[in-house]
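Tokens as discussed.
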């Protein structure tokens, strides 16, 4: 599960979007993966349902959320999508989010061992949230993913499989 390859294969980077609330933001963040067939429509419903039950457990840092649900909730293949919002939306816990990186993993092991380190590497780049919001093209996002490849979090990971 390679972040850059998943973005390219699923055509799943959408920039400068508008959402009226957190549910619409999550829908916008999941849509590219529904369109590519990586997840079924029920995946969105599962994210909303678990957010309403447990809160937005997937807000990883100020300004950034990683919406995801269980593999059995309609995940067809490992994938990622990334959207940016022109104006942040408020999540149920009061957090303002302007970057959503959707994760769809076919197993918990992939989620933990392969997906999370790549996400950490990307978001540990200096000013990552603002830089992503400022991106005008998917290629600019992909360049940031490339830049993050030197992160110590990725040492020993086989990202070509």
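Sequence:
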């Amino acid at each position: 599960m390679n972040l850059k390859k998943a973005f390219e294969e699923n055509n799943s980077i959408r920039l400068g979007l508008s959402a009226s609330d957190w549910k619409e933001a999550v829908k916008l963040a999941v849509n590219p993966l529904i369109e590519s067939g990586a997840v079924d429509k029920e995946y969105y419903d599962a994210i909303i349902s678990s957010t309403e039950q447990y809160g937005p457990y997937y807000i990883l840092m100020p300004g950034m959320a990683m919406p995801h649900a269980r593999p059995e909730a309609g995940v067809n293949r490992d994938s990622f999508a990334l959207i940016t919002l022109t104006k942040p939306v408020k999540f149920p816990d009061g957090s303002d989010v302007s970057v959503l990186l959707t994760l769809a993993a076919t197993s918990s092991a992939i989620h933990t061992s392969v997906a999370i380190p790549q996400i950490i590497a990307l978001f540990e780049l200096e000013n990552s949230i603002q830089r992503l919001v400022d991106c005008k093209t998917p290629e600019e996002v992909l360049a940031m993913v490339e830049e993050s490849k030197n992160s110590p979090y990725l040492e020993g990971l086989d990202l070509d499989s």
